[in-house]
Automatic annotation (TrEMBL):
SUPFAM superfamilies: Cadherin-like (SSF49313). This is Cadherin-22. GO terms for molecular function: beta-catenin binding; cadherin binding; calcium ion binding. It is a single-pass type I membrane protein. One of its GO terms (cellular component) is adherens junction. Coiled coil: none annotated.
Length: 805
């Protein structure tokens, strides 16, 4: 901020502020009848009437100029109430922001002064409250009123670039007016008051190449020929001035760095128009010859380039080293010093990324010549032809016969003598020899084409005075065939005929094999051997396709008279020379069925053919299956019957548990009791009709006594009474079992032990029965049948005389 140099200016501003801001506004407010105002007397007009009360004092905001530099406190304004009669009874006070420190008030007059220098940029306004009190009682005469003191702005803040310094970029060769970037300056002054915060922009340094929009702060190019290769960055100074650039305005500046980015506007260039390299003629294919590089004034991917050969690419090739961007020239095919000693290779460099906007600047490619000199080296001998030799020799050639000649020479200018040899790892049997000087290959052993039709050997050639210079080639020797093997039957043929064969029947066809391979192919001739010329049974027919057929000449063969015939056959080849051999065909006479199928070829026994028809096999399988089923059925029936027998035995054992009070006939009485009675445990006598009457012999003795002693009706009633006791007991137990929830719902077997009343038969002990005092009569035992006859004899009454005797 720039303080004023004279105090008169500040005095004038203070007076103006006092005149414009010290204004009182009187107002009226509606109140209810119960409301009173300090210094006013209430008027009573009833509960619903309204009264108009005159407000004491109200004021608006005050203004004070910032950056006051005077020595005296700056007058701000004056507060006053209509209750003040000028006699000094009123005391004015203020409270709030800055009260008592920044702002002070005269208690008698209400004048407010600012004691400190104010800065609107730090605080734009202050809120305070004014109060009028009675000086004696200190009672408030009016309610507190709030007012605002605003700080009046002056142009004391210069524009500032808060984000500077700035860095921007623009592509080279951009057209005029291309936007680069935007800069912004801020002014702390009040933008709503005057032009203190209105900023304009301008370029102080670098205006030749760039301009700036004075209102928006946008930096633009001023020329169209910005060249990164000439200057890759520019430093600008941009100024911002407030007061819209008028005289007396404050200003601030910042630096702007503008980087020029690259475009592909430069073609590649070789530093030299010719490069020279030397390489040995013995260098292998793919060996690098040399490296060349083209330079590009651009940068980044705009320098990427590829290389190609436009001339001389028959023996050389070029590749691009992606890391160094160099062209690597290497050998594509073997070089020959003796054939050509110098090669001119034209290498061209081409940009990969061509910008179509700059095509009119020229061709983005360049060429250079690579001169390659081939140096001579000592080379091994070279064979002619280089890819090997094929030779032929007859298999009947004599030892020492010439097979062929291999040729090799030294390719160097000196053309040194060459020596030949055979690699014995490829000819371990030493079948061939070679002359070391001429390279002539001769036979060392007799050949056999049927054993080996080809021989592959390796021939070496070395320089006579430098054996390290060696080379080798493959020689394939084909053995030509001569007819030195007779034809033979292909297999030991055997044929079979039926006894009832008819004349002229073809019984067999034979073929032959020959180990020889004549160039014109095989041709064989068949005849019967001289010893078989008188044969009257069979004839031979040459089928003209190197096979022959055997036919019968008669009928009625009998295998019991002769079951085997041997037919010698003579086979002759076409030569030269013609060779022959004799083979034997074995013909067996067999018995056949009506369809001509052979059944037996044995002369003494007839054996059925082992081959069974499908129908016979099926019938045999069916029979076997039926037998298996029958066996299983028999076993099942036996097991079923055995189970039934075991069940009956178990039932007998269970049903034989019975209580009865009769004594049997003793240990010797084996037929005294009928077992059927034990099996009918529940066939009690009372269930039968009383008219017919039960069989008394089948009842216990205590029942008999009652039935014999009384009438039939009485006995039946007595028996029913006794059995009713057991029935009632059993019925009770059955009811208990039915009511028991733990018993299963299905039928179950229950066992109960119940003795009932004492038996009327008393004891059957022999001790009591032998006493003379016994009144019991056992004569009824004799009526129970033969089973109880012996027991009845024990208890029958005896004769006293007999007893005494």
């Amino acid at each position: 901020m720039a303080p004023s140099s004279t105090s008169g200016v500040w005095t004038l501003l203070a007076a103006l502020t006092l005149l414009s801001c010290n204004i009182f506004i009187w107002c009226e407010a509606s109140r209810t009848s119960g409301t009173t105002t300090s210094g006013e007397r209430d008027q009573e007009q009833g509960p619903s009437s309204l009264e108009r009360v005159k407000r004491g004092w109200v004021w608006n905001q005050f203004f004070v100029v910032e950056e006051y530099t005077g020595t005296e406190p700056l007058y701000v304004g004056k507060i006053h109430t209509d209750s003040d009669d000028g006699e000094g009874n009123i005391k004015y006070t203020i409270s709030g922001e800055g009260a008592g420190s920044i702002f002070i008030i005269d208690e008698l007059t209400g004048d407010i002064h600012a004691t400190e220098r104010l800065d609107r940029e730090e605080k734009a306004f202050y809120t305070l409250r004014a109060q009028a009190r009675d000086r004696l009682s200190n009672d408030p005469l009016e309610p507190e009123s709030e007012f605002v003191i605003k700080v009046q702005d002056i142009n004391d803040s210069e524009p500032k670039f808060l984000e500077g310094p700035y860095i921007g970029s623009v592509a080279e060769l951009s057209p005029i007016g291309t936007s680069v970037m935007k800069v912004t300056a801020s002014d702390a002054d009040d933008p709503t008051y005057g032009s203190s915060a209105r900023v304009v922009y301008s370029v102080l340094d670098g205006e030749k190449f760039f301009t700036v929009d004075k209102n928006k702060g946008i930096i633009m190019t001023a020329v169209a020929d910005l060249d990164r290769e000439t200057q890759d960055r520019y430093e600008l100074v941009v100024k911002a001035t407030d007061m819209a650039g008028q005289m007396g305005g404050l200003s601030g500046s910042t630096t702007v760095t503008i980087v020029i980015t690259d475009v592909n506007d430069n073609p590649p260039r070789f530093p030299q128009k010719m490069y020279q390299f030397s390489v040995s003629e013995g260098a292998a294919v793919g060996t690098p010859v040399g490296r060349v590089i083209a330079t590009d004034a651009d940068m980044g991917e705009n320098t990427d380039m590829s290389y190609l050969i436009t001339d001389g690419g028959e023996l050389f090739k070029v590749t691009t080293d992606m890391e160094t961007q160099e062209a690597v020239v290497s050998i594509k095919k073997p070089l020959d010093f003796e054939n050509k000693r110098t090669h001119n290779v034209v290498v061209e460099a081409v940009n990969k990324h061509v910008d179509p906007r700059f095509v009119d600047l020229g061709s983005f490619r360049d060429q250079t010549i690579v001169l390659v000199s081939v140096s001579d080296t000592d080379e091994p001998p070279i064979f002619y032809p280089a890819d090997g030799t094929i030779m032929e020799v007859q298999e009947d050639a004599k030892v020492g016969a010439l097979v062929g000649i291999v040729t090799a020479r030294d390719p160097d200018v000196k053309n040194k003598p060459v020596r030949f040899s055979i690699d014995r790892t490829t000819d371990q049997e030493m079948i061939f020899h070679i002359d070391p000087d001429s390279g002539a290959i001769t036979l060392g052993k007799i050949l056999d084409r049927e054993t080996a039709g080809w021989h592959n050997i390796t021939v070496k050639a070395v320089e006579a005075d430098n054996h390290t210079m060696a080379s080798q080639t493959s020689v394939s020797i084909r053995i030509l065939d001569v007819n030195d093997n007779p034809p033979e039957l292909a297999t030991p043929y055997e044929a079979s005929i039926c006894e009832d064969a008819k004349p002229g029947q073809l019984i067999h066809t034979i073929s032959v094999v020959d180990r020889d391979e004549p160039q014109s192919g095989h041709r064989f001739y068949f005849n019967l051997a001289p010893e078989a010329s008188s044969n009257r049974y069979f004839s031979l027919l040459d089928l003209k396709d190197n096979t022959a057929g055997i036919r019968t000449q008669r009928s009625g063969f009998n295998r019991h008279e002769q079951n085997v015939y041997f037919l010698p056959i003579l086979v002759v080849d076409s030569g030269p020379p013609s060779l022959s051999s004799t083979g034997t065909l074995t013909i067996r006479v067999c018995g056949c069925d009506t369809d001509g199928a052979i059944q037996s070829c044995n002369a003494t026994a007839y054996v059925m053919s082992a081959a069974l028809s499908p129908g016979a096999l099926i019938a045999l399988l069916v029979c076997m299956l039926i037998l298996i089923v029958l066996v299983l059925l028999i076993l099942t029936l036996k097991r079923h019957r055995k189970g039934q027998r075991m069940t009956e035995d178990e039932e007998d054992m269970r049903d034989n548990v019975i209580k009865y009070n009769d004594e049997g006939g003793g240990e010797q009485d084996t037929q005294a009791y009928d077992m059927s009675a034990l099996r009918n445990l529940y066939d009690f006598p009372e269930a039968k009709s009383c008219d017919s009457g039960p069989d008394i012999r089948s009842l216990p003795q205590w029942i008999q006594a009652k039935r014999v002693g009384g009438s039939g009706a009485e006995a039946a009633a007595a028996a029913a009474t006794d059995f009713s006791l057991f029935k009632g007991y059993i019925r009770k137990k059955v009811e208990q079992a039915d009511a028991d929830l733990s018993v299963p719902p299905y039928d179950s077997f229950q066992t109960y032990a119940f003795e009932g009343t004492s038996s009327p038969a008393l004891s059957l002990s022999s001790i009591h029965t032998l006493s003379t005092t016994s009144e019991q009569d056992f004569s009824y035992l004799s009526e129970w049948g033969p089973r109880f006859r012996q027991l009845a004899g024990y208890y029958a009454p005896g004769n006293p005389e007999e007893e005494r005797s």
